[in-house]
Fold each of these.
Amino acid sequence: MNGDGIAQYHVAGVEWYRRAAEQRDAKAQSNLDLAYLNGSGVPQDFVIALLWSNLASAQGNDSAKKNRDILEKRMTAKQIAEAERLGRIVETAQIRAIHLDEKSANSTSAS
């Protein structure tokens, strides 16, 4: 094997982590932060890594808290602010999706 399969494996794994992370799965969010921190399956991007690290940390994920500290030491204040801004957008979208799911479930059960 020439290693091509390994890169594809990482890309596929990141997609599954992203799907779970969007559903507020803290472990998946932490795994995404590691993927972006290390450039594993995605281009290295500290801003996006910190976005996912902050979301996972807010749910009590200890690994994400450690990664957040590492990331913030490597980033500028502007990059950190951008990660926080993007994190608020993602979190708001996740909350809206949850409320929509709840409304849908309630209207289905009322029928």
Note: Helices lie at 4-21, 26-38, 46-58, 62-74, 77-110.
Amino acid sequence: MNNKEIYYDSEKKVGSIVCFVVDHNHRGKGIATALLNEACKNFENRGYDLIEAYPRTLVKNVAENYHGPLNMYLKEGFVVSKVVDNMSVVTKKVLIIFFVQ
């Protein structure tokens, strides 16, 4: 996959999540999900419009899941916006909440 295969809106500020590393003794405990949620909060606080990540669509072993499992992103509100070969591009719009007094 290369950048020519993915459409980018140059007016949007896009944050990318590319990798998760969780020690094998601590997998399955929600650590990657917690890291994902903190990364999303960080992008939101920094004024990003969109968050994207690149999990594999099909994995043969846990080593291929270093981008984070596709199912984790889907559970956290990401949607598959494109599939290129065995790589999904998942995106999530950053919600901006305004408080009016």
Note: The helical segments are 31-45, 70-75.
Amino acid sequence: MAIPILQETWSKRRPWRKFLTEKEMDSLPAIGVVMADHWAEWHPDLCREIQKEQNLAEYFKRRGNDLADQMDRLMQQGLGEDQAWEIIAEDLCVTQAM
């Protein structure tokens, strides 16, 4: 499954470095990487809040896997990959800790 991740996001900006190590980031599923990158840049207070309560890498791993499963289910129901991505992208960017 291809996830639209911009190479420049990964190699240049790296806002996630404020919260995660390279090893932790490498352990995340692709959707978890997108989520960690987005949240670190746009919702750093939320990242700090989650970090106080639980391991942030584990949180992104769990949420990334959940969203990947949701995307797979949507595609099995007949949606195209781009359509499924648009639906889960909304959840990916939600700013409430779950």
Note: The mean pLDDT is 84.
Amino acid sequence: MIDVRLQNDLSSLEREAFVNGARAANGDITLPAADAACVDWLAQSGQSASPSCIYLVRAESRWGDGDRIFSVEEQTTASLESSAVAYQQEAAHT
């Protein structure tokens, strides 16, 4: 189940980064240099998605090195950590 969630997360991040011209050839995502620039961030649908950009910046800072390059390794760590929390919450309610 984690592998499916991980693949879904990475695919979703890849598509969103592509829409924003922020995806590097190696899969890394180059995030805006300043939070204010997130105002131009778009969702996969092309609609404004500033909160998503801020979320990615915060995730990169938490699970990465804060350089605003959300590497595939950092994306994977963030996804796996989020999945672990989701599993714990699901287990607590069953």
Note: Helices lie at 2-19, 50-63, 72-92.
